[in-house]
Amino acid sequence: MKNNHFQHLLEINLAMLFISTSGALGRYVQLPVPVAIGARAILAFIALFLYCKWKGFGLKIDKKDTGVILLSGLLMGTHWIAYFYALKLSNVAIGMLSIFTYPVITALLEPVLLKTKFQLVHILLAVLVLTGMYFLSPTLNFEDSYTIAIGFGVFSALAYALRNILLKKKVSKYNGSMLMTYQTAIVGVLLFPFLFTVTTKAIVAQWHVLVALAILTTAIGHTLFLMTFKHFNITTVSILSSIQPVYGIIIGAIFLSEIPRGTTIIGGILILSSVVIESIRSKKAT
Question: Is the keyword Signal in the record (predicted)?
Fold first, then answer.
């Protein structure tokens, strides 16, 4: 069991490494946010659909699950759009760290929505994360782009937390690649009209970034992430995944030369220390 736990921790770290590429790629892509997300979703859908066909994964869903799958897709699209606006208005460090209020939100919502046992330790971790958030923007000036970016990040986090909670009971029933196929299809269809707001030449010029977002971040990263839902409760998954900003900030520093400020580092340490605490606590619980 302990060996399996270590393997599952490695799996979630691999998923976070792939997903963390979204920070640098989101900052690098030179397209309006709805266009970038729409193109990303369509390309990811094509890749996931072909993968499901190749592996022989069924794409049929029960009629009673249609509403949940549709809503989860809408929430995923909302999460992506708000997150990319957070990146555009700040930097990789602020954008990625701000969405990691979602473990706090998840810890508060999961006992209510999934009827799981309320755990006091998750509230204590929530306080730790919120303290870290203060250091990201201590002035809280809503005329400052960083503060607005954090607002988008928190809204993105809320959408992400709700999406994860919704899909918790579906990952044991449906394959993770299949679920991501539907979600990318929903986002792609909704944002498809925005692709006509820019020239085809502008989109083609960004093809390498969009393909990287579609394949590395979305198709591989988010599919691996969904699969980890089978091994941990949603609150534990969300807190463990807080390692993502560390990977993202390192990638941003290497490829975009974005070095975080001192207060950002302090806030990040407080937020990410919850990962270590929850990793130890979840291991003892297995």
Answer: no
Quickly tell me which residue has 């990625």 as its tokens: 96
Q: Which secondary structure element, helix H or strand E, spans residue 222, and what is its range?
A: none
User: What is the separation of C-alpha 269 from the centre of its chain, rounded to a whole number of angstroms?
Assistant: 19
| Burial of 67 per CB tally in 10 Å (0-12, 13-18, 19+) | exposed
Q: What is the pTM of this model?
A: 0.85
| pLDDT tens-digit map of 198-255 | 999 999 999 999 999 999 998 899 888 888 888 887 777 877 787 888 888 889 888 8
Cβ proximity of 269 and 132 under 8 Å: yes
Looking at this protein, which amino acid is placed at residue 190? L
**Direct distance between the N- and C-terminal alpha carbons of the chain, in angstroms, rounded to an integer:** 7
| DSSP line for 90-151 | S-HHHHHHHGGGHHHHHHHHHHHHS-PPP-HHHHHHHHHHHHHHHHHSTT--TTSHHHHHHH
